[in-house]
Design goal:
Shape: globular
Number of strands: 22
Mean pLDDT: 93
Strand content: 35-45%
Helix content: under 10%
C-alpha cells in the first residue's frame, strides 16, 4: 500500500516478528501478519521517524517533518503530541535501561541538535550546549547507540563524529583520517555487541575502527551509489548490511 510514497522509517516489534510499522508519506502503516495485510493512520504532515519502546512494545513514537513528537500506547489506534521541536525529526532512539527504570529516549533533528527524555517523553532536555563547540555539528547525518555501553552515543554531523559517554550531556570528537568538516559522512554504525567497533562511510570510502576510533582501516566502497545505512548483525557481529540510494542530479 505504500509503493507510491517514500518510506522514511520501519520498526519491528521486538518480540513479535510479524508485527511491524512503516512510515510512508503522511501515513503510518501497521501489519500484524508479516505484511499480508495493513492498516494505516493518517497525519497532516509527513512522518519522518519511528521508534518502538523495547521495554513496553505497545508504545510507539513518531516524529514528523514539522518537528512534532507523537506517541501512541494502544496498539496504534490513537496518537497524541508530546513535544514540539520545530525542526524536522530525523531519528528517534530508545535506549533500554541498564537495570530497573524507564528507557531513555533521544531525538535528533535535521539542524537543531539532539534532545533527550528519561521518562517516556514527559520531560525533555536540550543537548545542544554540548555540541556548540564543534562547527556545523547541528547538521545531522546519523545518531547511533553503543548498546553494550549504557549512556554512550555516537553522532555524525557535517563536523565529523562525536561520542558521548554521559547520555549526550558532553561530547568528544573521534580522530578520523580526514580532517573535521572536510568530508560528508553518509552512514555510521556501532557493533551492538562490541562498542569499540565503529564503521562509517563517505562518498566513496568505507572506514572501520576496532579500538573506539584510535586507529582506522579504509576500503573503497563496492558501489558508486551513496551509502545511506550501515547495520551490524546483532546475532553475528562479523556480518554487516549496507543500504544505498541513488542521488539524482
Amino acid at each position: 500500500p505504500f509503493a507510491q510514497a517514500q518510506v522514511d522509517a520501519i520498526v519491528v516489534h521486538p518480540k513479535e516478528k510479524c508485527s511491524l510499522f512503516v512510515a510512508a508519506g503522511k501515513k503510518v502503516f501497521r501489519s500484524t501478519d508479516c505484511s499480508r495485510s495493513w492498516q494505516s493512520s493518517d497525519f497532516d504532515v509527513t512522518v519522518s521517524a519511528l521508534a518502538i519502546d523495547p521495554v513496553a512494545p505497545s508504545t510507539l513514537y513518531a516524529g514528523n517533518t514539522r518537528g512534532d513528537m507523537l506517541k501512541r500506547t494502544d496498539g496504534g489506534k490513537s496518537w497524541r503530541a508530546i513535544h514540539r521541536l520545530e525542526n524536522r525529526i530525523e531519528r528517534i532512539l530508545i535506549a533500554p535501561p541498564a537495570g530497573a527504570g524507564k528507557p531513555t529516549s533521544y531525538v535528533a533533528t535535521r539542524s537543531a541538535g539532539i534532545y533527550r527524555s528519561p521518562d517516556d517523553g514527559t520531560t525533555w532536555s536540550d543537548l545542544r550546549r554540548g555540541l556548540q563547540d564543534y562547527p556545523a555539528a547541528f547538521e545531522y547525518r546519523q545518531l547511533v547507540l553503543a548498546r553494550k555501553t549504557p549512556g554512550t552515543l555516537l553522532y555524525a554531523s557535517k563536523y565529523g563524529i562525536l561520542r558521548s559517554t554521559d547520555f549526550g550531556l558532553t561530547w568528544q570528537p573521534l580522530t578520523l583520517i580526514t580532517a573535521p568538516g572536510t568530508v560528508d559522512i553518509s552512514s555510521l554504525t556501532v557493533n551492538p555487541n562490541e562498542s569499540n567497533e565503529i564503521a562509517y562511510t563517505t562518498a566513496s570510502t568505507f572506514y572501520k575502527s576496532s579500538d573506539a576510533g584510535r586507529n582506522w582501516i579504509s576500503k573503497k566502497l563496492p558501489t558508486s551509489r551513496t551509502v545511506s545505512l550501515l547495520h551490524v548483525d546483532q546475532a553475528d557481529g562479523k556480518v554487516m548490511w549496507m543500504g544505498t540510494r541513488k542521488i539524482e542530479k
